[in-house]
Specification:
Keywords: NADP, Oxidoreductase. The chain is an alpha/beta fold. It contains 8 helices and 15 strands.
Length: 324
Amino acid sequence: MSLTSEAIVLSQPGGPGQLVLETVHVPDPGPGQIRLRQSVAGVNFHDIYVRSGAYQTLRLPGIPGLEAVGVIEALGEGVSGFSIGQRVAYIDRFYGAYARARVVDAALAVAVPDGVEDAVAAAWFLKGLTAQVLVDAVHKVGAGDRVLVQAAGGGVGQVLSRMARLRGATVIGTAGSAEKIALAQAAGCHHVIPYREADVAAEVARLTDRAGVHVAYDAVGKDTFDGSLAALSSRGHLVNYGQASGPIPPLDIARLGAKSATLSRPFLFAYISTRPELEAQASAFFAAAPELPLGIGGRFPLAQAGAAQAALENRQPGPFVLDC
């Protein structure tokens, strides 16, 4: 039977105060759907872009949030492979995760293994899958590779650094504060460059005997793009997967020619668009979880979603989750 629940509703773009707790209707699950009683929702920079209006990808008024963990309460017609009471995690590119209960397509859900806490799964599922795809499908990192991770003290940056190191790469990270430098070092970076004080490309050249890095992972965007490009080796690969500092200005593609460099702008959902792809990447991430730095920066009640986003926006060490 259908029910009501509380959820965070965004009615118009703006600051954190635009995230308002409201009572919403939760329908019965339709064919191929499941209804979840959610325990924890993840908070991501993507959510901030949606709230601010930088991404106009949520139909307003709407419920933001990309990922959450919950227990299945009801199964729609035709759903197989899941059971009532089972604990699952999901990422939904069409949002709706900031809620106590919701209906979601069963094809998006994966079982959360025993030993992985709800808060850890909710905080790290999107970040972990992103890192997994980056080192496996976007650019396959292997032993002997030299890797640059911009913002290595951030959420994805920490997991990405550890995954690259576990694959035998030499990892050079960047960070903007003493606290983030410590996080990057703990995550496995062999070297950490304080990017606010040093020329990143020059430091990479020094650390690699001017050889540069085989791949540079950059989610910062405008402020770091030129340095990442300059840090590449011959035939190096610049992977830009975010724009925390703002969009990158238009690029003259001829700039890549000096090093025969390649540039990619991957989007996670293109790599988990089929059920086999999602299951394979999720399985690989959860299998690696015991060896990864998967801490929680802070927990907020659902009603304080705005405060959680503000903490993330102010570069406080995360990740942050919402207790539903």
